[in-house]
Design goal:
The strands form six sheets. An eleven-stranded mixed beta sheet has the order 10-13-16-19-24-27-30-33-36-38-39, covered by helices on one side. Strands 8-11-14-17-20-25-28-31-34-37 form a ten-stranded parallel beta sheet, with no helix packed on it. It is an alpha/beta fold. Helix content is 13%, strand content 26%. It has two domains: 13-108, MurE/MurF, N-terminal domain (Udp-n-acetylmuramoylalanyl-d-glutamate--2,6- Diaminopimelate Ligase, Chain: A, domain 1), CATH 3.40.1390.10; 123-295, UDP N-Acetylglucosamine Acyltransferase, domain 1. One of its GO terms (molecular function) is UDP-3-O-[(3R)-3-hydroxyacyl]-glucosamine N-acyltransferase activity. Pfam families: Hexapep, LpxD. Pathway: Bacterial outer membrane biogenesis; LPS lipid A biosynthesis. The active site is at 256 (proton acceptor).
Length: 354
Protein backbone atom coordinates (compact mmCIF):
# COMPACT_ATOMS: atom_id res chain seq x y z
CA UNK A 1 0.00 0.00 0.00
CA UNK A 2 1.38 3.41 -0.94
CA UNK A 3 1.78 6.15 1.68
CA UNK A 4 -1.24 8.46 1.92
CA UNK A 5 -0.99 12.01 0.62
CA UNK A 6 -2.95 14.28 2.91
CA UNK A 7 -2.54 17.44 0.83
CA UNK A 8 -2.61 16.69 -2.90
CA UNK A 9 -1.65 19.81 -4.89
CA UNK A 10 -4.33 21.64 -6.87
CA UNK A 11 -1.93 22.33 -9.77
CA UNK A 12 -0.35 22.18 -12.21
CA UNK A 13 0.81 25.76 -12.82
CA UNK A 14 2.98 26.98 -15.67
CA UNK A 15 5.95 29.23 -15.05
CA UNK A 16 4.04 31.94 -16.90
CA UNK A 17 1.20 31.69 -14.38
CA UNK A 18 3.69 31.78 -11.51
CA UNK A 19 5.35 34.89 -12.93
CA UNK A 20 1.97 36.59 -13.20
CA UNK A 21 1.08 35.63 -9.63
CA UNK A 22 4.35 36.65 -7.97
CA UNK A 23 5.94 39.29 -10.19
CA UNK A 24 9.15 37.24 -10.47
CA UNK A 25 10.99 37.04 -13.79
CA UNK A 26 12.71 34.16 -15.53
CA UNK A 27 16.33 35.21 -16.02
CA UNK A 28 18.02 32.16 -17.56
CA UNK A 29 15.97 31.49 -20.67
CA UNK A 30 13.81 28.57 -19.49
CA UNK A 31 10.55 28.40 -21.42
CA UNK A 32 7.55 29.91 -19.57
CA UNK A 33 5.44 26.90 -20.60
CA UNK A 34 7.31 24.63 -18.16
CA UNK A 35 4.83 23.06 -15.74
CA UNK A 36 5.11 23.03 -11.94
CA UNK A 37 3.16 20.41 -9.99
CA UNK A 38 4.41 20.72 -6.41
CA UNK A 39 6.65 22.66 -4.03
CA UNK A 40 9.58 21.21 -2.11
CA UNK A 41 12.78 22.18 -0.25
CA UNK A 42 16.02 22.45 -2.23
CA UNK A 43 17.36 19.04 -1.23
CA UNK A 44 14.13 17.14 -1.89
CA UNK A 45 12.83 18.89 -5.02
CA UNK A 46 12.27 16.83 -8.15
CA UNK A 47 11.87 17.65 -11.84
CA UNK A 48 8.32 19.03 -11.49
CA UNK A 49 8.83 20.90 -8.20
CA UNK A 50 9.28 24.55 -7.32
CA UNK A 51 11.75 25.55 -4.59
CA UNK A 52 13.43 28.70 -3.24
CA UNK A 53 16.67 29.99 -1.71
CA UNK A 54 16.79 32.94 0.67
CA UNK A 55 20.15 32.65 2.48
CA UNK A 56 23.77 32.07 1.35
CA UNK A 57 24.19 29.07 3.67
CA UNK A 58 21.89 27.08 1.38
CA UNK A 59 24.02 27.62 -1.74
CA UNK A 60 25.53 24.09 -1.52
CA UNK A 61 21.99 22.65 -1.60
CA UNK A 62 21.11 24.92 -4.52
CA UNK A 63 24.07 23.57 -6.48
CA UNK A 64 22.70 20.02 -6.13
CA UNK A 65 18.97 20.70 -6.49
CA UNK A 66 16.98 18.82 -9.13
CA UNK A 67 14.02 21.21 -9.05
CA UNK A 68 12.19 22.51 -12.09
CA UNK A 69 12.37 26.10 -10.87
CA UNK A 70 13.77 28.12 -7.99
CA UNK A 71 12.84 31.53 -6.60
CA UNK A 72 16.03 33.45 -5.84
CA UNK A 73 17.25 36.94 -5.07
CA UNK A 74 19.23 38.66 -7.84
CA UNK A 75 22.52 37.96 -6.03
CA UNK A 76 21.87 34.20 -6.21
CA UNK A 77 20.45 33.88 -9.73
CA UNK A 78 23.86 33.07 -11.26
CA UNK A 79 24.20 30.13 -8.85
CA UNK A 80 21.04 28.39 -10.06
CA UNK A 81 22.12 25.17 -11.87
CA UNK A 82 21.65 24.86 -15.63
CA UNK A 83 18.23 23.54 -16.53
CA UNK A 84 16.58 24.91 -13.38
CA UNK A 85 14.43 27.95 -14.07
CA UNK A 86 15.78 30.91 -12.09
CA UNK A 87 12.82 33.00 -10.92
CA UNK A 88 14.37 36.25 -9.76
CA UNK A 89 12.58 38.24 -7.07
CA UNK A 90 13.67 40.41 -4.11
CA UNK A 91 11.48 38.27 -1.82
CA UNK A 92 11.99 34.59 -2.70
CA UNK A 93 10.22 33.13 0.32
CA UNK A 94 7.19 35.40 -0.05
CA UNK A 95 6.88 34.35 -3.69
CA UNK A 96 7.22 30.67 -2.77
CA UNK A 97 4.46 31.03 -0.17
CA UNK A 98 2.17 32.72 -2.70
CA UNK A 99 2.47 29.70 -5.00
CA UNK A 100 2.12 27.23 -2.12
CA UNK A 101 -1.11 29.00 -1.07
CA UNK A 102 -2.46 28.60 -4.60
CA UNK A 103 -1.50 24.92 -4.82
CA UNK A 104 -2.52 23.98 -1.27
CA UNK A 105 -5.41 26.25 -0.33
CA UNK A 106 -6.97 23.28 1.48
CA UNK A 107 -4.06 23.28 3.98
CA UNK A 108 -4.83 26.82 5.17
CA UNK A 109 -7.63 25.60 7.46
CA UNK A 110 -8.14 22.56 9.69
CA UNK A 111 -9.26 19.50 7.76
CA UNK A 112 -12.87 18.40 7.43
CA UNK A 113 -13.85 14.95 8.64
CA UNK A 114 -17.13 14.72 6.74
CA UNK A 115 -18.27 16.02 3.37
CA UNK A 116 -19.88 19.30 4.41
CA UNK A 117 -23.43 20.18 5.35
CA UNK A 118 -25.03 19.55 8.71
CA UNK A 119 -24.41 16.09 10.12
CA UNK A 120 -27.42 14.23 11.51
CA UNK A 121 -25.10 13.26 14.38
CA UNK A 122 -24.72 16.91 15.47
CA UNK A 123 -26.78 18.31 18.33
CA UNK A 124 -28.29 21.70 17.46
CA UNK A 125 -30.70 23.60 19.69
CA UNK A 126 -33.93 24.56 17.93
CA UNK A 127 -33.38 28.25 18.74
CA UNK A 128 -29.98 28.42 16.98
CA UNK A 129 -29.88 30.58 13.85
CA UNK A 130 -27.64 29.12 11.17
CA UNK A 131 -27.22 30.69 7.74
CA UNK A 132 -27.18 28.54 4.58
CA UNK A 133 -23.79 27.07 3.68
CA UNK A 134 -22.70 26.27 7.24
CA UNK A 135 -21.04 22.91 7.95
CA UNK A 136 -21.64 21.25 11.31
CA UNK A 137 -19.77 17.97 11.68
CA UNK A 138 -20.69 14.90 13.66
CA UNK A 139 -20.80 15.18 17.43
CA UNK A 140 -20.75 18.98 17.47
CA UNK A 141 -23.04 20.70 19.97
CA UNK A 142 -24.70 24.05 19.17
CA UNK A 143 -26.40 25.69 22.15
CA UNK A 144 -29.47 27.89 22.51
CA UNK A 145 -29.65 31.20 20.60
CA UNK A 146 -26.32 30.67 18.85
CA UNK A 147 -25.84 32.54 15.56
CA UNK A 148 -23.50 31.20 12.85
CA UNK A 149 -22.75 32.91 9.53
CA UNK A 150 -22.56 31.28 6.12
CA UNK A 151 -19.43 29.43 5.07
CA UNK A 152 -18.46 28.64 8.66
CA UNK A 153 -17.37 25.13 9.67
CA UNK A 154 -17.99 23.69 13.12
CA UNK A 155 -15.72 20.66 13.52
CA UNK A 156 -16.49 17.28 15.10
CA UNK A 157 -16.97 17.37 18.85
CA UNK A 158 -16.83 21.17 19.03
CA UNK A 159 -19.13 22.82 21.56
CA UNK A 160 -20.67 26.26 20.98
CA UNK A 161 -22.24 27.62 24.16
CA UNK A 162 -25.54 29.48 24.44
CA UNK A 163 -25.72 32.93 22.90
CA UNK A 164 -22.39 32.81 21.08
CA UNK A 165 -22.20 34.54 17.73
CA UNK A 166 -19.85 33.39 14.98
CA UNK A 167 -19.33 35.35 11.76
CA UNK A 168 -18.95 34.14 8.21
CA UNK A 169 -16.25 31.85 6.78
CA UNK A 170 -14.93 30.89 10.21
CA UNK A 171 -13.55 27.50 11.21
CA UNK A 172 -13.98 26.06 14.69
CA UNK A 173 -11.94 22.86 14.60
CA UNK A 174 -12.40 19.49 16.27
CA UNK A 175 -12.86 19.50 20.03
CA UNK A 176 -12.77 23.29 20.43
CA UNK A 177 -15.11 24.93 22.94
CA UNK A 178 -16.59 28.39 22.67
CA UNK A 179 -18.63 30.09 25.39
CA UNK A 180 -19.51 33.70 26.22
CA UNK A 181 -17.89 34.83 22.99
CA UNK A 182 -18.44 36.87 19.83
CA UNK A 183 -16.39 36.03 16.72
CA UNK A 184 -15.95 38.15 13.61
CA UNK A 185 -15.46 36.82 10.08
CA UNK A 186 -12.75 34.42 8.87
CA UNK A 187 -11.67 33.45 12.38
CA UNK A 188 -9.83 30.12 12.69
CA UNK A 189 -9.78 28.20 15.96
CA UNK A 190 -7.60 25.09 15.80
CA UNK A 191 -8.31 21.79 17.60
CA UNK A 192 -8.68 21.97 21.36
CA UNK A 193 -8.91 25.77 21.61
CA UNK A 194 -10.82 26.96 24.69
CA UNK A 195 -12.53 30.34 24.46
CA UNK A 196 -14.61 32.08 27.10
CA UNK A 197 -14.12 29.97 30.20
CA UNK A 198 -13.67 31.51 33.67
CA UNK A 199 -10.89 33.94 34.24
CA UNK A 200 -8.67 33.15 37.22
CA UNK A 201 -9.95 35.41 39.98
CA UNK A 202 -10.15 34.87 43.75
CA UNK A 203 -10.25 36.96 46.88
CA UNK A 204 -7.54 35.26 48.94
CA UNK A 205 -7.50 35.05 52.73
CA UNK A 206 -6.21 32.94 55.54
CA UNK A 207 -9.57 31.21 55.76
CA UNK A 208 -9.73 30.22 52.09
CA UNK A 209 -10.22 31.75 48.66
CA UNK A 210 -13.52 33.20 47.43
CA UNK A 211 -14.17 32.94 43.72
CA UNK A 212 -14.83 36.23 41.89
CA UNK A 213 -17.66 35.99 39.34
CA UNK A 214 -16.34 36.42 35.81
CA UNK A 215 -19.16 38.14 33.92
CA UNK A 216 -17.40 39.59 30.85
CA UNK A 217 -17.13 38.23 27.32
CA UNK A 218 -14.48 37.36 24.75
CA UNK A 219 -14.55 39.43 21.55
CA UNK A 220 -12.47 38.08 18.67
CA UNK A 221 -12.28 40.34 15.63
CA UNK A 222 -11.95 39.45 11.92
CA UNK A 223 -9.11 37.28 10.55
CA UNK A 224 -7.77 36.11 13.90
CA UNK A 225 -6.17 32.64 14.04
CA UNK A 226 -5.65 30.80 17.33
CA UNK A 227 -3.47 27.67 17.52
CA UNK A 228 -4.23 24.28 19.04
CA UNK A 229 -4.84 24.01 22.80
CA UNK A 230 -4.62 27.75 23.41
CA UNK A 231 -6.96 29.35 25.95
CA UNK A 232 -8.63 32.76 26.11
CA UNK A 233 -10.45 33.54 29.37
CA UNK A 234 -13.55 35.69 29.38
CA UNK A 235 -13.41 39.06 31.09
CA UNK A 236 -14.11 39.52 34.76
CA UNK A 237 -15.99 42.81 34.51
CA UNK A 238 -15.16 43.90 30.96
CA UNK A 239 -14.39 42.13 27.67
CA UNK A 240 -11.28 40.20 26.73
CA UNK A 241 -10.51 41.40 23.20
CA UNK A 242 -8.35 39.90 20.41
CA UNK A 243 -7.78 42.45 17.65
CA UNK A 244 -8.19 42.04 13.91
CA UNK A 245 -5.62 39.92 12.09
CA UNK A 246 -3.77 38.76 15.21
CA UNK A 247 -2.10 35.32 14.94
CA UNK A 248 -1.71 33.20 18.07
CA UNK A 249 0.37 30.01 18.17
CA UNK A 250 -0.35 26.75 20.00
CA UNK A 251 -0.51 26.51 23.81
CA UNK A 252 -0.88 30.20 24.60
CA UNK A 253 -2.73 31.42 27.72
CA UNK A 254 -4.57 34.75 27.63
CA UNK A 255 -6.09 35.91 30.91
CA UNK A 256 -9.26 37.83 31.69
CA UNK A 257 -9.70 41.46 30.59
CA UNK A 258 -6.65 41.29 28.31
CA UNK A 259 -6.83 43.55 25.25
CA UNK A 260 -4.66 42.57 22.28
CA UNK A 261 -4.37 44.95 19.35
CA UNK A 262 -4.51 44.35 15.61
CA UNK A 263 -2.07 42.13 13.70
CA UNK A 264 -0.07 40.98 16.70
CA UNK A 265 1.98 37.77 16.61
CA UNK A 266 2.06 35.67 19.78
CA UNK A 267 4.28 32.56 19.71
CA UNK A 268 3.78 29.28 21.59
CA UNK A 269 3.68 29.01 25.38
CA UNK A 270 3.26 32.74 25.96
CA UNK A 271 1.30 33.60 29.10
CA UNK A 272 -0.49 36.96 29.33
CA UNK A 273 -1.90 37.83 32.75
CA UNK A 274 -5.18 39.59 33.37
CA UNK A 275 -5.83 43.17 32.24
CA UNK A 276 -2.61 43.47 30.21
CA UNK A 277 -2.87 45.61 27.07
CA UNK A 278 -0.95 45.02 23.82
CA UNK A 279 -0.88 47.64 21.08
CA UNK A 280 -1.09 46.86 17.36
CA UNK A 281 1.64 44.81 15.63
CA UNK A 282 3.22 43.61 18.88
CA UNK A 283 5.36 40.45 18.63
CA UNK A 284 5.91 38.14 21.63
CA UNK A 285 8.46 35.32 21.22
CA UNK A 286 8.00 31.84 22.66
CA UNK A 287 7.52 31.49 26.43
CA UNK A 288 7.27 35.23 27.07
CA UNK A 289 5.48 35.99 30.33
CA UNK A 290 3.48 39.21 30.68
CA UNK A 291 2.44 40.54 34.09
CA UNK A 292 -1.07 41.73 34.72
CA UNK A 293 -2.03 45.38 34.11
CA UNK A 294 1.05 46.22 32.00
CA UNK A 295 0.93 47.90 28.59
CA UNK A 296 3.11 46.89 25.65
CA UNK A 297 3.24 49.68 23.09
CA UNK A 298 2.47 49.59 19.37
CA UNK A 299 5.02 47.61 17.33
CA UNK A 300 7.12 46.46 20.30
CA UNK A 301 8.95 43.13 19.95
CA UNK A 302 9.81 40.93 22.92
CA UNK A 303 12.41 38.14 22.61
CA UNK A 304 11.66 34.54 23.59
CA UNK A 305 11.58 33.65 27.31
CA UNK A 306 11.53 37.30 28.41
CA UNK A 307 9.50 38.42 31.41
CA UNK A 308 7.51 41.64 31.06
CA UNK A 309 6.86 43.19 34.48
CA UNK A 310 6.58 46.87 33.52
CA UNK A 311 5.15 48.88 30.63
CA UNK A 312 7.15 48.76 27.38
CA UNK A 313 7.40 51.72 25.04
CA UNK A 314 6.12 51.53 21.45
CA UNK A 315 8.46 50.31 18.74
CA UNK A 316 11.20 48.97 21.00
CA UNK A 317 12.91 45.58 21.03
CA UNK A 318 13.19 43.94 24.41
CA UNK A 319 14.65 40.83 26.04
CA UNK A 320 15.62 39.32 29.37
CA UNK A 321 14.01 38.97 32.78
CA UNK A 322 12.83 41.53 33.53
CA UNK A 323 12.45 42.69 29.94
CA UNK A 324 14.61 45.70 29.01
CA UNK A 325 15.91 47.21 25.77
CA UNK A 326 17.57 44.43 23.86
CA UNK A 327 20.94 46.17 23.40
CA UNK A 328 21.13 46.74 27.14
CA UNK A 329 20.25 43.08 27.74
CA UNK A 330 22.93 41.93 25.28
CA UNK A 331 25.59 44.10 26.96
CA UNK A 332 24.71 42.67 30.37
CA UNK A 333 24.84 39.10 29.04
CA UNK A 334 28.25 39.70 27.47
CA UNK A 335 29.57 41.29 30.67
CA UNK A 336 28.36 38.37 32.78
CA UNK A 337 29.92 35.87 30.38
CA UNK A 338 33.26 37.69 30.52
CA UNK A 339 33.17 37.73 34.32
CA UNK A 340 32.43 34.02 34.41
CA UNK A 341 35.25 33.23 31.95
CA UNK A 342 37.69 35.37 33.94
CA UNK A 343 36.84 33.48 37.15
CA UNK A 344 37.25 30.13 35.39
CA UNK A 345 40.67 31.12 34.02
CA UNK A 346 41.89 32.45 37.33
CA UNK A 347 41.00 29.15 39.01
CA UNK A 348 39.99 28.53 42.63
CA UNK A 349 41.71 30.50 45.37
CA UNK A 350 43.26 28.37 48.12
CA UNK A 351 43.63 29.39 51.72
CA UNK A 352 47.37 28.98 52.32
CA UNK A 353 46.87 29.00 56.10
CA UNK A 354 45.13 25.61 56.08
Amino acid sequence: MSDPVFFPPAGPMSLAEIVTLTGARIVNGVAPERVIVNVAPLDQARASDLTFIDAPRYLPLLAETRAAACFCAPKHSASVPPGVAALETPTPYDAYVAVARRLFAVALRPALVGQGGISPAAHIDASARIEPGVTVELGAVIGANVEIGRGTVIGPGAVIGPGCRIGRDCHVAAGATLTNALLGNRVILHPGVRIGQDGFGYVMSGKGHSKVPQVGRVVIQDDVEIGANSTVDRGANRDTVIGEGTKIDNQVQIGHNVVIGRHCVIVSQVGISGSAVLGDFVVLGGKVGVNGHVTIGHGAQVAATASVKDDLAPGGRYGGAPARPIKEWYREEVALRRLAQRDIKSGPKHDEGR
